Amino acid sequence: MNNLFSIFDPSTSMMFSLNWLSLLIPMIYFPNQFWLKKSKNLIMFMTINNFLLNEFNSMFKKYKLILIINLLTLFNMILFMNFLGMFPYIFTPSSHLSITLPLSLTLWLSIMIFNWLNKTKKCFAHLVPLNTPPALMIFMVLIETIST
Prior knowledge:
Order of helices and strands: HHHHHHH
Protein name: ATP synthase subunit a
Largest sheet: none
Membrane topology: Multi-pass membrane protein
Main location: membrane
Pfam family, one: ATP-synt_A
Number of strands: 0
GO molecular function: proton-transporting ATP synthase activity, rotational mechanism
């Protein structure tokens, strides 16, 4: 008798496991540029990447292109991991805490460190509530820093 969670175990299957087939789906989906006429997948992929590239360029104007490429790669990796969840009997890696926790903590910590080093005044401004008297602003920053 099959277990409800046996679909997540790659060693047990009924003749064929779709989990191993899921490794080939991103390679099939990635659009190739061999043809003269661009496919709909390639146009969609290029539109999303160009939009994200413009967004990252506006945020990181004076920083290297390698950072932007790494962020685009990370976005595409998460996109394809979640895209696999639309197929039946495939358990996506982004559902595991062992994938999402390091990814989210690393991204959150890097954004916080980046902002504290490069945009210090704006970070302090977010720690001060609206209509705070100027004499209490220093103490409010300390209180908000400790409370978060």
